[in-house]
Design goal:
It is a single chain. This protein is 26% helix and 21% strand. It has 333 residues and is an alpha+beta fold. It folds into two domains: 4-82 and 123-184, MutM-like, N-terminal (N-terminal domain of MutM-like DNA repair proteins, Alpha-Beta Barrel); 190-327, Helicase, Ruva Protein, domain 3, CATH 1.10.8.50. The strands form four sheets. The chain has a six-stranded antiparallel sheet with strand order 1-10-11-5-8-9. Strand 13 (316-320) and strand 14 form a beta hairpin. Helix 1 crosses helix 7 and helix 4 (197-208) packs across helix 7. The longest helix has 21 residues, at 253-273. The chain is globular and about 55 Å long. The two termini are 28 Å apart. It is an enzyme of class 4 (lyase).
């Protein structure tokens, strides 16, 4: 499932290439025909993400709400220019640059992410090509006709004179009015890229500290904190050396505050680079390897049975909240 950084990157893509443009909306698959008819011919005026949900506002004050869920993805094509706030080098969106030790330096060399994670392998800007944005960003084939034919089961197509976005497989895709949007937002926990950081921290700590629920479940509860998915959950808990089974109300307030601040830190890296890079202070070849391959990017995620990078104990895999949880039974106690 796409985590918060991916959805923010998609929203920025819409803000850069669709906001201010009249949109032709359709449903090639047919399942969203009525909703598309409501949006067709209107100008997109705003694009924003909150946690794992994205909201596109049109000039008649209707909103398109999209939650990608487990299988959803947006495919873009056209004369696409990347958001300037998403680092670009050598014609790739999300390219993380390697000349220095900071993964957001302005100059660098090309790397390929062989794991396919929300990644450096994407698009030139601008050029006529297809590319996908979900949990991974991947380049596609060039095309010759405009607009390109829809590929697969496209729930909704948003088309301008120069760009097209095709949505496949979302969990939620609906047209809402402003009160309905507010009702959705009211159920979501704080998002570091949307809410005031101090207020967001206060809300997170206050909510989590009242719950008997294990902290490993609370971090995935979008009403407690927005945007954290399976990868960030495992990595945040390891970085805090926190047992995933600890009830929220048993976690010291200062540890909860540090969890929130670490989420602010990791989300910022994810949005700017397109990578869920959770190991700090990597330099040189180690940094290059981490940015090229997920296996070198994380402390515990997908490392079951492998020795902990700190203590050598084998990383454990279990199920928590119907999702896979990775953790170290020695360091996280």
């Amino acid at each position: 499932m796409p985590e918060g950084h991916s959805v923010h990157r998609i929203a920025r893509q819409f803000a850069k290439n669709f906001v201010g443009h009249r949109v032709t909306a359709s449903s090639p698959q047919g399942r969203f025909a009525a909703g598309a008819a409501l949006l067709d011919g209107h100008t997109m005026v705003e694009a924003k993400a909150v946690g794992k949900q994205m909201f596109l506002r049109f000039d008649d004050d209707r909103w398109l709400r999209v939650h990608l869920g487990m299988y959803g993805a947006w495919d873009f094509a056209g004369d696409i220019s990347t958001d300037a706030t998403i680092r670009s080098a050598s014609g790739r969106m999300g390219q993380t640059n390697q000349r220095g030790t900071d993964p957001t330096d302005d100059e660098g060399t090309d790397l390929d992410d062989v794991a396919g994670e929300d990644s450096v392998s994407s698009i030139g800007a601008p050029r006529r090509s297809r590319f996908r944005m979900a949990e991974s960003e991947s380049a596609g084939a060039e095309y010759e006709t405009w607009p390109p034919e829809p590929v697969g089961q496209v729930r909704v197509r948003l088309l301008t004179d120069t760009a097209v976005a095709d949505l496949r497989g979302p969990t939620a895709c609906e047209v809402l009015d402003p009160p309905q949007v507010e009702a959705v937002l009211a159920k979501l926990g704080p998002d570091p890229l949307v809410d005031d950081l101090d207020e967001g921290e206060r809300r997170f700590v206050e909510t989590a500290s009242r719950k008997p629920t294990p902290i490993g479940l609370l971090l995935m509860d979008q009403s407690v904190v927005s945007g954290i998915g399976n990868v960030y959950r495992a990595e945040l808990l390891f970085r805090a050396r926190l047992d995933p089974h600890t009830p929220g109300r048993a976690v010291p307030a200062d540890v909860l505050r540090e969890l929130w601040r670490d989420w602010v830190h990791l989300l910022d890296i994810g949005v700017r680079t397109g990578q869920m890079l959770t190991i700090d202070d990597l330099t040189g070849e180690a940094l290059a390897q981490a940015m090229a391959n997920r296996a070198d990017r994380h402390w515990v995620y997908k490392r079951e049975g492998l020795p902990c990078r700190i203590c050598g104990t084998n990383i454990v895999l279990e199920e928590m909240g119907a999702r896979k949880l990775y953790w170290c039974p020695t360091d996280q106690v």
